[in-house]
Amino acid sequence: MKYSKATNYALHTMLFLAAAAPNKPVGVQQLAERQAVSPTYLSKILTKLVKAGMIESASGANGGYRLRRNWEQISFLDIIHAIEGTASLFDCSLDHGPECLVQRVVLEAEAKMEAHLRGQTLAQLVSEQKIDH
Amino acid sequence: MKYSKATNYALHTMLFLAAAAPNKPVGVQQLAERQAVSPTYLSKILTKLVKAGMIESASGANGGYRLRRNWEQISFLDIIHAIEGTASLFDCSLDHGPECLVQRVVLEAEAKMEAHLRGQTLAQLVSEQKIDH
DNA sequence: GAAAAGGTACTCGGATATCCCGTGTCCGAGTCACGAGGG
DNA sequence: CCCTCGTGACTCGGACACGGGATATCCGAGTACCTTTTC
């Protein structure tokens, strides 16, 4: 029961992009160095974020990754779901009646966690980060 | 990001033991049949619960597994921790200042989930289950 | 005193958990090489 | 033409999900042996 490292990279990258200059694209090279990971691997992760519509990529010279218009409303949960998928973290798969008590309780707990993650938007966090810094 | 099947088995077993007659030990054979898993494998999982002090085992004829005295206060979180370990589901492991914002947010979310799981005791759930049934 | 009843202690077999080990599968993490696209 | 992203194929290791067999442990039934009772 752990979030994957890919999720970690994605979250940090998004936060970095949000804190950086908003319109200049940032190359994967630079992003990868910052997190000590290979550029190829990171680009694979970022492609998922592109497909999820959170960032956009530009090829060619001076290309890179850049946030899209409405980036401020993106939440942690959105990013996590883009990487990990939206499958819930428990499915009973035993056939003992349609209402599995175990399932219900765990899913309630999960919902509480997701609610918190949904409440944390990039915009909020960037301002907090600036204060810290 | 998923709970292991072992956790599933453990939760169901605990709930079953709590619903059954409290003092008669139940053999691993019977418990395993109910969940369609091999007795050998299940016993491995139950051993963890024994070591965590939640149930006790009895060898010999009419032996089996049985809840301990204060079973009513055992929570879902206790059971999950006994099987999955207590490691938190995120550790940033990047060295960018002592206070990682990502880490903080995810851990807050995790705490909310754990709070909910800690609030669900076996005693509560057994009574709910009886009503359902 | 002998037979029946009772009781203790010991053995023994089977039911049970526990330990050690092995196997197959799947997934995360990462690399490499090559293709595509744009300035 | 060069720089950048995109992606598919590949490797590699470790965790997960099981299962099997041998071993230790313990209970309960049987049994033999002794003691007590009763006539």
UniProtKB/TrEMBL annotation, chains A, B:
The keyword Signal applies. It comes from the Bacteria. Keywords: Signal. The keyword Ribosomal protein does not apply. Residues 1-20 form the signal peptide. SUPFAM superfamilies: Winged helix' DNA-binding domain. Gene3D superfamilies: Winged helix-like DNA-binding domain superfamily/Winged helix DNA-binding domain (1.10.10.10). It holds the Pfam family Rrf2. This is Rrf2 family transcriptional regulator. The lineage of its organism: Bacteria, Bacillati, Bacillota, Bacilli, Bacillales.
